[in-house]
Amino acid sequence: MNLFACDQKIEHLNDDFYDGGENIPLTSNSPTHLFEIGAQAAQAGTIGVMAGQLGLISRYSRDYPDIPYLVKLNSKTGMVETSQRDPVSQAMWDIDDVFTLKENGINVVGIGYTIYLGSEYEHDMLTEAATLIRQAHENGLICVTWIYPRGQAVPDETDPQLISGAAGVAVCIGADFTKVNYPTEFIGKSRPESLAVAVEAAGRTGVICSGGGSLPPREFLQRLYDQVNISGARGSATGRNIHQKTTEEAVRMCAACHAIICAGASVEAAMAIFEGD
Q1: Is residue 123 classed as helix, strand or coil in its secondary structure?
Q2: Would you tell me the crossing angle of helices 267-274 and 217-226 to the nearest 10 degrees?
Q3: Which residues are catalytic?
Q4: Which CATH fold topology does 2-274 show?
């Protein structure tokens, strides 16, 4: 799964899309930038899905019909801090809204949902996610969960045991893939080896790791290579390391990620793709 994550316009507001041109291309401020990347990558066969909220997809998808879409059903901003209230994010749409998109010819292939494990509201999110996953599977859609330990009961959001626990929760509610944050190290293990524990805990649910903040391309691709080849992850969910680039660079990064995830490419080969060699 090479998932192009485009749900951040709610999650991170505009912070990831505009900085006056200092590090982010000015074209990134328009949602069109995301769809131009997604369309070119889809035509090249180098992304599995483009994930975004239902409203975002409905506004642009008719102009970009070749993209396989994954509808993110819940989202929240980060404006309310955990110190104020434990995080909660419940669905803004129901499964019938997703089916309506499909019935109107939009290439929807799956749904996504975020769960904040350890929040006092986790039961509400788990229950809603489990129901939506069942309904989606009954109608032939794949399901991806974003599961993050977060809340006042969580002292360390990247604790490797908690990340492994989150991966195990994903398989228990039936997700096909789950996105988790890259954990810190277990004692005596490297970071990729620690993620491998989460991959094993997830069983038949594929673990896809968060792309995180923007990194230098080689560092990002090396990390992805390690996650796939050492950890056994089934891909990645990448936003900023793709869309905070020009369209041309972003499309080449999609191809580089695809080469590592789906074609067994080395970091050197993936870098050559990214650099256009």
Answers
A1: helix
A2: 140
A3: 148, 179
A4: TIM Barrel (3.20.20)
Determine the pLDDT at residue 211.
79
Residues in the chain: 277
State yes or no: pLDDT of 210 exceeds 90: no
pTM score? 0.96
Q: What is the mean pLDDT of residues 166-189?
A: 98
Cβ neighbours of 268 (radius 10 Å): 10
* Beta-bridge partner residues of 258: none
Cβ neighbours around 108 below 10 Å, total: 23
Say if residue 163's pLDDT is above 90.
Answer: yes
H/E element, 36: helix 32-44
Q: Which helix (DSSP H) or strand (DSSP E) does residue 104 occupy?
A: none
The 10s digit of each residue's pLDDT in 178-207 is 999 999 999 999 999 999 999 999 999 999
- Residue 135 in 3-state DSSP? helix
| Distances 91 to 75, 111, 132, 174 between C-alpha atoms, Å | 8, 11, 9, 18
- CB burial readout 21-59, b (16+ within 10 A) else e: eeebbeebeeeebbbbbbbbbbeeebbbbbbbbbebbbe
Flag whether pLDDT at 250 surpasses 90.
yes
